[in-house]
Amino acid sequence: MDCIFCKIIKGEIPSYTVYEDQIVKVFLDINPDTNGHLLIIPKKHCLGLAEIDDNTLLHVMKIARKMETLLKEKLKIDGLTLIQNNGSVQEVKHYHLHLKPHYNEKNVIKPVDEIYNMLIN
Ligand code: 5GP
Ligand code: ZN
Predict the structure, then answer these.
(1) Residue 84 dihedral angles phi and psi, to the nearest 5°
(2) Is 90 in the pocket of ligand 1 (CB under 6 A)?
(3) How far does CA 83 lie from the centroid of its chain?
(4) Is position 96 annotated as part of the catalytic site?
(5) CATH class for domain 4-120?
(6) What average pLDDT does the chain have?
(7) Which amino acid residue places its CA nearest to atom 3 of ligand 1?
(8) Burial call 78-100: b when 16+ CB within 10 Å, e when fewer
(9) 92 lines ligand 1 (CB under 6 A)
(10) Is the CB–ligand 1 distance for residue 13 below 6 Å?
(11) pLDDT, tens digit (0-9, with 9 covering 90-100), for 74-99
(12) What is the pLDDT of residue 107?
């Protein structure tokens, strides 16, 4: 199966990973809408909302909460939007939850490696 996110999980494609455990991986979106735009993906391949199992879905949301704390602490975000696309609006066909930070002040997009360093240090 030619899945880009499975390749990221296997380490065949590099990613700026900020968190991982046995069930999920969290990394920075390569084309961020805002600074700190994260993707949470299950390590076991599944398509979308209809396919992900309940336990994994709950774990994804728990990790989203943990990542919100990290983004507040490291990037001083003012708000956070969670989005998960399905069907025709889903570009990558491996379940992923977007975490998109908001900032009250105008926030110029910084290089992903710079944001990564802020998140892990
Ligand atoms: P979708 O429209 O499927 O919800 O969004 C897919 C997201 O995956 C997009 O925001 C896109 O920038 C991101 N993306 C696609 N390919 C890669 C990749 O190779 N690495 C990373 N880090 N993000 C990717
Ligand atoms: Zn996959």
Answers:
(1) -140, 110
(2) yes
(3) 10
(4) yes
(5) alpha beta
(6) 97
(7) 91
(8) eebeeebeeeeeeeebbbbbbbb
(9) yes
(10) yes
(11) 999 999 999 999 999 999 999 999 99
(12) 86
**Closest ligand by atom to 5 CA:** 2
- The structure tokens listed for 94 are 């491996």
> What are the domain boundaries of the chain?
4-120
The confidence band for 105, taking pLDDT boundaries of 50, 70 and 90, is very high
The model's pTM is 0.98
Q: How far apart are CA 22 and CA 86, in angstroms?
A: 24
31 ligand 1 Cβ < 6 A:
yes
Ligand 1 centroid to residue 67 C-alpha, Å: 18
What does the pLDDT read at residue 1?
A: 75
Q: Which tokens in the block code for residue 110?
A: 């910084």
| Closest ligand (CA of 98) | 1
Q: Which candidate in 37, 59, 96, 98 is catalytic?
A: 96
